[in-house]
Design a protein that fits this description.
The protein folds into three domains: about 10-85, Arc Repressor Mutant, subunit A, CATH 1.10.10; about 95-160 and about 275-295, D-Maltodextrin-Binding Protein, domain 2, CATH 3.40.190.10; about 165-265, D-Maltodextrin-Binding Protein, domain 2. The protein has ten helices and twelve strands. It has helices at about 10-20, 25-30, 35-50, 65-85, 105-120, 170-175, 200-205, 225-230, 240-250, 280-295; strands at about 55, 60, 95-100, 125-130, 145-150, 155-160, 165-170, 190-195, 215-220, 235-240, 265, 265-275. Helix 1 (about 10-20) crosses helix 4 (about 65-85), helix 2 crosses helix 3 (about 35-50) and helix 5 crosses helix 9 (about 240-250). The longest helix is centred in the first third of the chain and has 23 residues, at about 65-85. The chain is elongated and about 85 Å long. It starts with 7 loop residues before the first helix and ends with a helix. Pfam families: HTH_1, LysR_substrate.
């Protein structure tokens, strides 16, 4: 008797989207584009002659018929996965780890170190997305979210891995042109600001006991990484977070003209959903973060 089988790629896309409730999350799991998942689902709907999803903003909801279909199809995929694992799937099959982190932290600390993680774990694919928004506002379910802390969020396990302070930094070339022998000499310089962190310079100047000091000029950027790049390029003096400028200080791209005062700052922490806190790969990456943070 001839078997009646739907297009298997379309069925796979349907199962992932139905189980996850999102075309985007299904695309990430299947390593295809959002559009590819949508196209495969439409193909299956045309083949079956029924609608499978109701589209609602960024989420999708299964129709009544699709729920019943998924209840029967879903276990078959699990059985297929288990059978394949028993009969020869190599241990080197890559796993994807999804990480969400602030943009400046990602650019200046995480990315320069990721090569070491990849060298030690070539079978792990790390997918990094950047966001500065609060953890509770994230729409996607990431394996690891990196934010400041320590804070407590319901449903998440938190671990600190990197501490920092903030102090003035600038390029060596700038110091050669206009020396900085004391904090009061900042009146001859351009102070670099970040619009999202307006209190950094006023707080530091108050700690240095010169709260009324007026610089030669000020320049404000909308992203912190632009502020730091402007400091590297010799445009002015920025308030540098020690964790994010440590590589530049070591390489001589930046110098810290004053060892004190230093503004205290929040630590960087990894936040993991409770349901993923026991995942071996998640634990591996968190341990790596802590080891790198201790260097």
């Amino acid at each position: 008797m001839k078997r009646i089988l739907p297009p298997l790629n379309a069925l796979r896309a349907f199962e992932a989207a139905g189980r996850l409730g999102s075309f985007k999350e299904a695309a990430a799991e299947l390593h295809v584009t959002h559009g590819a998942v949508s196209q495969q689902v439409r193909l299956l709907e045309a083949w079956l002659g029924v609608s499978l999803f109701e589209r609602r903003n960024r989420r999708v909801t299964l129709t009544h018929a699709a729920k019943a279909y998924l209840e029967e199809v879903g276990p078959l995929f699990e059985q297929l996965s288990q059978a394949t694992a028993r009969y020869g799937v190599p241990d080197t099959v890559a796993r994807t780890l999804s990480v969400n982190a602030p943009a400046t932290f990602t650019l200046r600390w995480l990315v320069p170190r990721l090569a070491r993680f990849r060298a030690a774990h070539p079978d792990v694919e790390v997918k990094v997305e950047t966001s500065n928004g609060p953890l509770e506002s994230l729409k996607e379910n990431y394996d690891i979210v990196i934010r400041g802390g320590p804070d407590t969020f319901y449903g998440y396990a938190m671990r600190s891995f990197l501490s920092e302070e903030r102090l003035p930094v600038c390029s060596p070339a700038l110091l050669q042109r206009v020396p900085l022998r004391s904090p009061a000499d900042l009146r001859q310089h351009t102070l670099l600001h970040t619009s999202s962190l307006p209190r950094l310079w006023p707080d530091w100047l108050a700690s240095a006991q010169i709260p009324a000091m007026r610089p030669a000029a000020t320049l404000t950027f909308d992203h912190f990484y632009l502020t730091l790049q402007a400091a590297i390029d010799g445009i002015g003096v920025a308030m540098g977070p020690t964790a994010l400028v440590s590589d530049d200080l070591a390489a001589g791209r930046l110098v810290a003209p004053f060892s004190a005062p230093r503004l205290p700052s929040r630590s960087y922490c990894s936040y993991v959903p409770d349901e993923k806190s026991g995942d071996e790969l998640v634990g591996l990456f968190r341990t790596w973060l802590e080891r790198e943070g201790a260097c």
